[in-house]
Write a structure and sequence with these properties.
The complex is a heterodimer of chains A (about 400) and B (about 375).
Chain A: H1 3-22, H2 24-27, H3 32-48, H4 67-78, H5 88-92, H6 94-101, H7 105-116, E1 122-125, E2 141-145, E3 148-159, E4 166-172, E5 183-189, E6 195-200, E7 209-220, H8 231-240, H9 256-264, E8 267-268, E9 271-272, H10 277-305, H11 316-335, H12 353-365, H13 370-381
Parallel strand pairs in A: 1-4
Antiparallel strand pairs in A: 2-3, 3-7, 4-5, 6-7, 8-9
Helix pairs in contact in A: 1-4, 6-7, 9-10, 10-11, 11-12, 11-13
Chain B: H1 7-23, H2 26-29, H3 41-49, H4 68-80, H5 87-100, H6 104-116, E1 121-124, E2 139-141, E3 144-152, E4 160-167, E5 170-177, E6 182-185, E7 196-210, H7 211-250, E8 252-253, E9 256-257, H8 262-287, H9 294-320, H10 331-343, H11 348-360
Parallel strand pairs in B: 1-4
Antiparallel strand pairs in B: 2-3, 3-7, 4-5, 5-7, 6-7, 8-9
The chains are: A alpha+beta (about 400), B alpha+beta (about 375).
């Protein structure tokens, strides 16, 4: 048994020992507030057990291990349905990025430990009505205000902002230069005067994303995390910093075993559904696709364990898994005939096909729309040209709105 | 299981690709398409010279004693060039079937000659449209065969064939002496595969295995060949993706390289995804040889490789526009090979059903 194998075995043992208290079954029927409170207690336990901030430096309260241990733990944890969703952004991007870009180390350490214990939550104030995929097109203004800054504008699709204590934010400090050059990166206190958070109800009924209005919000200059005009580089570093994360070839939807079990109880044309060629074809194609993604992930782990950089094909995971989950969810509903129209508002998207289906479009847009992922593959891996961009090199305030 | 190629395996990949880059020529392959009975002899000489014919045959029978991983890497290089005279995969399959049979004299007689390239053997499992029927219509009695097999790959040239037949009420795997079979060449869209209908009218044959053992060996042999073919398909798909990319970077229209248009670049990015899934499944399947889940891994590899090669053949041609459909440009070598390889070793319908039976226990 390698060190990694024993790390995995220990992690699994610990997860099993507390699954009854925090896992999927313990969460059933809880309100979101109750679930969040349970999540905070789970994170505290996780931190005490030595599984908080696995890859973060010891001097900031992390465990000082590598990305390999981090991904091993996350992969094991995924199977238990723990209440971690409220903290995924917080611990994924803002926390590692403040370690790298905020100078006051004592303050950073305090924030990191509180976030790892679930006592504080960070959000990421990037997307706006005029800038999602085109992040550098954002319009929120940061203007000098004495020895600090004054922020005005609106952010959109900000996950868990309604629970957030702090946020990282990109704002425009100079509209007279081309769009990428006029951005600056800050952290903000979400309780500062002038910040208003309004939850948005999504098509699936959930409201994990928000509009955030910023009205004359005052920031000190020590809240600036990039050179003035150098915010886009830190924003890119933010989006890259969670490159090594657990993946799920189910596209964060139900497993293929789940579909097989569903089909076992159903008939098509008076015959068992599993004997129907169309059902068999759907199962087989999805099995092959998911097995391919699993093998890509397994080889990436082996590469990391050998101290090598994993191949670029890891970029395929989200694109292929979520897109196919959407179609398979449609198929699973169809398969049930009229029984397929029922809907359980408390269904989990990892076990219920209808919940999976109605939430799937979000998965294909959030964290990089399919089209942007294809652009990234085409440009960064295959060396194909960037799209024609009419706003390239044009001062931001001269780009037609 | 998955793994990372070691240095020796990487050397096989690089060297086989280098040799074929230097020796293969599209201009030599194109005329073969219109001639029944011809195949690319220079490639076959190269395969023998490089030891590919014996690569995965045990050393005690004159081979190199390597396995599916290494043979897969060679197949990938041949696939990129639409090389692969029909004998490489079928010869490996027949040898593997013989190896798992119990007749030692049969192994001693044939395997060293297959390894050296002196004898050509193929595999004839399918009955008409059924890749591996529960009971074959070909009958084996008193060391002789009666019946017919359609469009057997390499059937025009092979000296022997491992045949899926019926012995009374039991299935049987037998090695038929094709010098005493009637060969009817099939005019095909991919003629260098040397397809022939084989008619057995009392053709001498020797028993390799029968009953459940025969069924197990046949299915395992077919799976191993499917994994080799999946690598060949992967090599073809990857080559087409690269050609599409290169063409999209050089061909200009509306004032820019066509690869700057999302409709084109996304199509190529999708191909990249299919190629990498096929590669990942191919590696996993090759490394799963001999393990309990081998059939499942082989089916996954076969399905994703077929999808990758078919899609790449369609889309690469589409991206080339008019030039892509000309005889001279030769993309149709891949288009044709994508289809012939999609059928050899069992079509997608067969593999989808086999996979689902393996994972659910429910037969079609």
């Amino acid at each position: 048994m390698t060190d990694y194998d024993s790390y995995r075995a220990n992690a699994r043992t610990w997860l099993q020992s507390i699954a009854g208290e925090f896992g999927r079954e313990a969460r059933r029927g809880l309100s979101e507030e109750q679930d969040l409170a349970l999540g905070r207690r789970y994170l505290a336990s996780r931190y005490e057990a030595g599984y908080g901030g696995i890859h973060l430096p010891v001097e900031f309260g992390g465990q000082g291990l590598s990305h390999v241990e981090k991904v091993i733990f996350e992969t094991e944890e995924m199977g238990f349905g723990m209440p971690i969703v409220y903290f995924s952004i917080s611990l994924g991007m803002p926390i590692p990025i403040i370690i790298r870009f905020v100078k006051d180390q004592a303050w950073v350490k305090e924030r990191v430990v509180k976030a790892l214990r679930g006592e504080e939550i960070w959000c990421q104030l990037f997307s706006e009505p005029a800038g999602g995929s085109d992040l550098a097109g954002l319009r929120t203004r940061a203007e000098p205000d004495g020895n600090g800054w004054k922020i005005n504008g609106q952010k959109l699709w900000t996950s868990w902002a309604q629970y957030a204590d702090y946020g990282i934010m990109v704002a425009r400090t100079d509209p007279t230069v081309p769009k990428h050059q006029g951005l600056t990166y800050f952290w903000v206190d979400m309780r500062a005067p002038g910040i208003e958070v309004r939850p948005i109800k999504l098509a699936d009924g959930g409201h994990d994303v928000n509009e955030v209005f910023l009205d004359d919000v005052r920031l000190e200059d020590l809240q600036r995390m990039s050179p003035v005009g150098g915010g886009f580089g830190v924003a890119m570093a933010t989006l890259m910093i969670e490159r090594y994360a657990a993946t799920d070839s189910n596209g964060f939807g139900p497993s293929l075993d789940n579909l097989v079990e569903l089909a076992r109880g159903l008939d098509v044309n008076g015959r068992p559904a599993l004997q129907d060629g169309r059902v068999r074809s759907a199962i087989a194609r999805n099995h092959a696709m998911r097995a391919g993604l699993d093998s890509i992930t397994a080889r990436a782990m082996l590469a990391m364990q050998a101290g090598k950089e994993p191949g670029p094909e890891g970029a395929l995971n989200k694109l292929f898994s979520v897109r196919s989950r959407q179609k398979l969810s449609e198929f699973a509903i169809d398969l049930q005939g009229m029984k397929g129209v029922s809907f359980d508002p408390d269904g989990l998207f990892t076990e219920d096909w209808t919940t999976s289906w109605i939430a799937a479009p979000t998965g294909r847009i959030a964290g990089g729309a399919d089209e942007m992922l294809l652009n990234t593959i085409a440009e960064k891996i295959l060396g194909l040209p960037q799209d024609h961009r009419p706003d390239k090199g044009v001062p931001f305030n001269q780009i037609p709105a | 299981m998955s793994f990372l190629y070691d240095d020796g395996q990487m050397a096989i990949a690089t060297e086989s690709r280098r040799v074929l880059d230097a020796r293969m020529a599209k201009d030599r392959l194109l005329p073969l398409l219109e001639q029944v009975g011809q195949y690319d002899e220079p490639f076959w000489r190269t395969a023998i010279e490089q030891g590919w014919t014996g690569l995965a045959i045990p050393e005690e029978y004159g081979g190199l004693g390597l396995g599916l991983i290494e043979l897969g890497l060679v197949a990938q290089a041949t696939g990129a060039h639409t090389a692969g005279a029909p004998f490489l995969t079928a010869g490996y399959g027949a040898a593997r079937g013989l190896l798992h049979g119990s007749d030692v004299s049969l192994k001693e007689e044939w395997l060293p000659k297959v390894a050296s390239g002196e004898k050509i053997v193929t595999v004839a499992f399918a009955d008409a449209s059924v890749p591996m029927p529960p009971a074959s219509s070909v009958r084996f009695e008193n060391d002789r065969l009666w019946g017919a097999k359609s469009a057997v790959v390499a059937g025009q040239r092979a000296d022997g064939a491992l045949v899926w037949a019926q012995h009374g009420k039991e299935p049987a795997l037998v090695l038929a002496d094709l010098s005493q079979a009637v060969r009817k060449p099939v005019n095909s869209f991919d003629n260098s595969r040397l397809y022939a209908d084989l008619v057995f009218d009392g053709t001498p044959a020797r028993l390799v295995a029968e009953g459940d053992t025969a069924r197990r060996i046949a299915l395992e042999t077919l799976s191993a060949m499917a994994v080799v073919t999946a690598h060949e398909q992967l090599g073809g798909a990857e080559e087409l993706m690269t050609m599409a990319r290169d063409y999209a970077l050089t061909r200009k229209a509306f004032g820019q390289p066509i690869g700057g248009f999302q409709s084109v670049k996304h199509r190529i990015a999708e191909l990249y995804g299919l190629v990498e899934l096929a590669r990942a499944n191919g590696i996993h399947a090759a490394a799963s040889d001999g393990q309990e889940h081998f059939l499942i891994a082989a089916a996954d590899a076969r399905i994703s490789a077929t999808e990758a090669y078919d899609t790449a053949a369609r889309d690469c041609t589409q991206i080339h526009g008019g030039i892509g459909v000309t005889w001279e440009q030769g993309l149709h070598l891949h288009m044709r090979r994508a289809r012939s390889l999609a059928i050899e070793q069992g079509n997608l319908l067969f593999w989808e059903d086999l996979l689902v039976e393996q994972i659910t226990g429910v037969a079609a």
